[in-house]
Amino acid sequence: MNAPLSTQQQEHAFLSRLGERVRAWRTEHGMTRKQLSVASGVSERYLAQLEAGQGNMSVLLLRKVARAMGVSVERLVREDNGEQRPIALLGLRGAGKSTLGAKLAHSLNLPFVELDREVEKEAGAPLGEVFAMYGQDAFRRFERRALERVLGEHPQAVIATGGSLVTDPGTYELLLERCRSIWLKAAPQEHMARVIAQGDTRPFKGRAAALDEIRKLLDDRDRLYGRANAVVDTSGKTVRQSLADLRRVIA
Fold first, then answer.
1. Distance between CA 65 and CA 55 in Å, rounded?
2. Which residues pair with 90 in a beta bridge?
3. Which of 170, 180, 242, 203 is nearest to 93 (CA)?
4. SS3 for 232?
5. What are phi and psi of 25, to 5 degrees?
6. pTM for this one?
7. Alpha-carbon distance 45 to 33, whole Å?
8. Which residue has the higher pLDDT, 228 or 202?
């Protein structure tokens, strides 16, 4: 059993999460630290310390930053108890979400949920047919309902999400708000090799430039995946090595 964190360790973890939220917001909105400094009236030096997890800002300074970001102070400083929140794995197919997610859930004695399978339950049809019969917009509605149901049924779980969930703003915001999110990152070549090894080339089937398509998807979604609480790079690693990295991140 792990020893409880000391007060100093808890404070450091809290400040680190606070810094991550500010940095992720800037990345998402394409704002430089200098621009946020001008908008908030808080010096770049303070913002740099805040994002580095070394901030010890007064409430009034933090209020200025929150106002400039257009978010509440409560959202910035909310307490995160990772042990009591679902763990959501993000990334393209082939990143290792299903393989690592199942092993992580087993090691933590938690339920493992593949969100795509829950979408199929909502729609009453296999995933490929959901797109064919109902279209993209309907799929997004099924996905949102599936996520809401899973979060209601499982206060603690490991959830492997669909690769494109991050492109739906409302559903992604819900996931970020309710889960501890981890981006499983891999090189394009590894994504491709793993998908082929699984015998599944959806949605790349019949496309000669499949690898280029994966590169483009990763480029297009880099900023979105980057909003996750943490990143684990699975490139060039065995399942055991990646699982150890993942466990270190959630510890």
1. 12
2. 183
3. 203
4. strand
5. -65, -45
6. 0.66
7. 9
8. 228
